[in-house]
Amino acid sequence: MKETDFLKKKAEFPVGMAYVPWQNMEHVYENLEEAFLIGTLFPELNKPFEGRRRK
Questions:
Q1: Residue 18, pLDDT score
Q2: From CA 21, how far away is CA 9, in angstroms rounded?
Q3: Alpha carbons 45 and 55: distance in angstroms, whole number
Q4: pLDDT in tens, 8-43
Q5: What is the Cα–Cα distance from 43 to 29, expressed in whole angstroms?
């Protein structure tokens, strides 16, 4: 779909809604270098990917 087509038909698309639950952060990593390597300052958000790769 071209951008001009979208602009003409945008009224046909429903408004999106999102649900984002509140997150209570109680702890932080004391070692900031560790937090940087993990990608979060909050241990509660450290959710490493544990799935497996599909071939």
A1: 86
A2: 32
A3: 29
A4: 777 777 788 888 888 888 899 999 999 999 999 999
A5: 7
- Give the amino acid at 13: F
Are the C-beta atoms of 25 and 42 separated by less than 8 Å?
A: yes
Question: Structure tokens of 2?
Answer: 């071209």
Q: What is the pTM of this model?
A: 0.48
C-alpha 15/C-alpha 19 separation (Å) is 14
Cα(22)–Cα(2) distance, rounded to whole angstroms?
38
The dihedrals phi and psi of 6, each to the nearest 5 degrees, come to: -60, -45
Cα separation, 36 vs 42, whole angstroms: 11
Q: Tell me the three state secondary structure of residue 19.
A: coil
